[in-house]
Design goal:
With 130 residues, the chain is α+β, with helices and mostly antiparallel strands. It contains 4 helices and 3 strands, in the order ααβββαα. The protein has a 3-stranded antiparallel sheet, sandwiched between helices. It is elongated and about 65 Å long.
Length: 130
Amino acid sequence: MTLHLEAVADWMLAQAEAELPALAGMGEMEQALACIARGPAARALATLVQRRAAQTPLECPECKTGLRVIDGQRGRGVASIHGDVRFVRGYGRCPQCGQTCAPADRALGLGESGFASPRVQEICAATVLL
């Protein structure tokens, strides 16, 4: 484990020990650590998603023509395994083919509508199949 990971593990341990009852079982320990890790993971995911959205060119995914901007900061919320993630991205209309879209949605693997991340969709599908 690198020094950075040791510092993170020590922080998580201190948080868990402060929250857990003295005679907590392993299941309670796992749950506490999952809750503790969720906050930083959600923040990191939101940052990564926003960066990817900002890097995505505002061009038509079909014909690669630059879009006419309808809304340069259209918001979207998505349920992830780390909690809800909100981000903004460009939205526009293609002057060549007339399609309206938010290219960042496609770059992130998201459908045009819907509220679940690709990972949440995979988990739901696997659960249904079981």
